[in-house]
Amino acid sequence: MNGVPVLSLIVFTPLAGALLLMLVPDTNHRAIRWIALATALTSFALSLLLLGYDPAEPEFQFREDLPWIEAFGMRYTMGIDGLSAVLVILTTLLSAVAILYSWEPIRIKVKAYYATMLLLMVGMLGVFVSLDLFLFYVFWEISLFPMYFVIGIWGGPRRIYATVKFVIYTMVGSLLMLVAILAVVIAYAASGNPVTFSYEALRGFAYTDTLQTFAFVAFFLAFAIKVPMWPLHTWLPDAHVEAPTAGSIILAGVLLKLGGYGFLRYNLPLLPDAAVTFAPIIIGLALVAILYGALVAMVQPDMKKLVAYSSVSHMGFVMLGAFVFNEQGLQGAIFQMISHGITTGALFLLVGVIYEQTHDREIAHMGGLNARMPGFAAMFGLFTFASIGLPGLSGFVGEFLVILGAFRYHPLVAAAAMLVVIASAVYMLWMLQRAFFAVPSDWMRRWWPTLRDMNRTEWIALSPLVVLVVVLGVYPGPLLEMIAAPVDRIIEAVRGAGMTSLGPLW
Amino acid sequence: MDMLDDLVTLLPELILATLVLVIITADLFISRADKWILTPITVAGLVLAGVACFVVWDVNEVVYSGFYVVDDLSVFIKGATIVTGILSALFAPSYLLVRRIPLGEFSMILMSALLGMCVLASSSDMITLFLGLELMTMPSYLLAGLHKTDRYSNEGGLKYFLLGSFASAILLFGVAWMYGLTGTTSVAGIAAAVDGQMSAGILVAMGFLTVGAAFKIAAVPFHYWTPDAYQGAPTPITGFLSVGPKIGAFALLIRVFAEALAPLRADWLAVFLVLTVLTMTVGNVVALIQVNVKRMLAYSSIAHTGYIMAGLAAYANAGDAEVAAQGIESMLFYLLGYAVMNIAAFAVVGMLQRDTSRFGGLNSFAGLATRAPWRAAAMVLLMLSLTGIPPTVGFFAKLYVLLAAVEAGLAWLAVIIVLNAALAAFYYLRVIVYMYMRDPEPEPAPLDSSPFGSAALVLSVVGVVVLGLFPGAVLEIIRTSAASLF
User: Fold this and answer.
1) Which of B399, B437, B472 lies at the smallest CB-CB distance from A152?
2) Is the separation of the CB atoms in A155 and A243 below 8 Å?
3) φ and ψ at residue A320, rounded to 5 degrees
4) Worst-scoring range by mean pLDDT, A106-115, B185-194, B272-281?
5) Which residues in chain B touch residue A179, judged by CB atoms under 8 angstroms apart?
6) Across A206-213, average pLDDT
7) Which whole number is the average pLDDT over A353-364?
8) Contact A159 B419 (CB under 8 A)
9) A168 and chain B in contact, CB less than 8 A
10) How many other CB atoms are there within 10 angstroms of residue B29's CB atom?
11) How many angstroms separate the CA atoms of B316 and B327, rounded?
12) In chain A, what residues touch B385 (CB-CB under 8 Å)?
């Protein structure tokens, strides 16, 4: 369409930044931080160009297509639709926020840290813009290892256990997905088509039921581990608790979205029959995740763990919305992904603010913070309400749409999901009350003299999220418009689908 | 005149043979302090031999009354052999010199082993095949035991020698049976004679050949010599032993099973499937519990043998020639990629053993990232490549094998491979954990930083990434090579 490879620029700007960092001396922390931030902001600014996406046009836009490994039909194909566009922008924004937030907390191996964060950006952005399954897989794996280092090097006391668990979990899923990708590609080629990894070519093909079942399960495992879906979520609380704050922001804000994106981009349109057949099971799992996450969050003594389990619950909504296969559900799922990225990212950032001062996250240790840190308390309150889904904030729109979609699928499903909205109010408000309004614990009193409110860096890092959480809550129209076309395409793909050989299992 | 033409087709072998003599002679005249000069001589000779491979590319002739074949398959294997040789020749000297292991002997023996691998790759007759095999393995025994004053090296060398000779004898016995049954030792002759002629006798012969070959590639349960031989050998030599003889042994496997016994592939497939699954799984599971990096890499090399064998299984199970070719191609690509990454990985272990009393335990890697950031980064890439993570050659190699397996209808084997790869991730990543996430030991061993070693490390890392991201050119070569079988 236009000559400038916008997507490549967005994806590889951070790589250039990481390479540039290699030339800076280790000790010049100031230059390192500024270069990293400037890189992330450049990538963010470039990603805003994607707002020029035309929602009326159903095909992928900003396409780039170059031959790569021709022997196997692998091509360097990139392109976006509304779904990728919003996730790309979310990624670049949250990365910039995370990099800015790390300004003071990260004091060791600073250069390596920022280079790793920038490489992480490359992987995540690449996943969202790839239209070639091989390219997608390469980026998918590239997004895994930087996080492994971020947790493993800059994390908490049990970081090694947490990071190895994270990697092994994810690898099992993604390697099985690799086999499934190959199986799909080979099945497509076996019927006389040229060998290709092109997403656009592969998605329209009618695969046999056996292949769909196998491939669906493999894709499902890869994405469900990433989301994470109950009962494959056990790596998440460990990873979050041990990760440094910026790592948690990215992990919750973007990495989990890779899973949700995978479902919407690959599982549904590529293997619609299996998706429809397995939908009831997945909806069941999603409901369990929603309930389980909320219930477990209630009893968490650690702030970060609480937010982590609330993620399990919120991402359950994404899965629920994705598999009820109607417009409201799917729009809600995507909206919920964006909203969860913003609110949970912000909540982790806020937990980081207090953790940096007291090196403790026990809710029982806090209390009365409102008196010493009013600005902090106000922000924490705002995002708590966003997380609960208060109307007027972004969390409401997503949850509401998902529940609406679920209602159209089956009223009981909607009712079950609805219950959890109450539960989430319980755990979030209870945390807010204990940490900010209760009588300060003796432990907290010791910190009293040194406790400070949010500093300038923290405010700057948080402010874009504050704006977005309100704007998206009050005026979700433009975002919904952007994702309308991709949602229609998915619905089109699954309409009338269903596996014949397995018959009606339910 | 005819004789002379035939001679040209042997150019790489002739250069290697000459190199052996040049090194022996030069060694006599170089003073002890200047022995390093042997390294550039060796490498220059190898580069020359590599160039010679291009001369014999696309020749595709059977020479010397059917005893020797110069087809593209053999030329590719020779090329991979020479790459292995160059890297080994560059990595080894500083490790050897500090231990007073004579460099001249090492270089000469290494060249002989390479010559054996080249002969093996080109044999179109069981006699040549056995000759090449012995020419490859005899020097390998010597290399394993090269550190004469070290008892581990002695033990490893001796075990390798005893079990290796035993395996050679079994293999030879299989060849003898085959000769008795078919009346020929020629590869093509055997293929023609056994076509559709399955009998108890052939089964016995095939059994002996399988066992002998399985010993040579260190397939489970014929792998017991590997860990000791690999651990005992001087570390950079271990790198060579884990790769060089493996390339040779797989060349043998291709010649015997994919050529001579190709008509019977439905009959040997089942045995190979069992061996494949056993090899990769046992290799990985045992590697998990190793605390010595050399031993860990030794077991992991058994696992990699399993992945390569999966290519052969894909070949045997394939429905048509194109898919069968893909099986062979995946083996060739894997061998090349594995050669580059594994030699380099062992070399990094060797660099940490500058102090001769250190044994390459995981602890020696602790905090390497702060002590030697570039070498640690290189090791990360190598470990990721061995795990099979993009954008490295290890990933593409594994992908190729998976593709071949799935296409040949062995999707279940592909699943076993990837589960194994995830298992392997655990121990490869442990090295990274030590390098990046732990503090150095109180008195870390000094690091070796010879220019040759560093240059070779840079070469390998560049190779690992370039072959991983842009394998296109090599894939073309491999396709042409594998096509000479069909």
Assistant:
1) B437
2) yes
3) -60, -50
4) A106-115
5) 402, 406, 411, 414-415, 418
6) 86
7) 83
8) no
9) yes
10) 8
11) 8
12) none
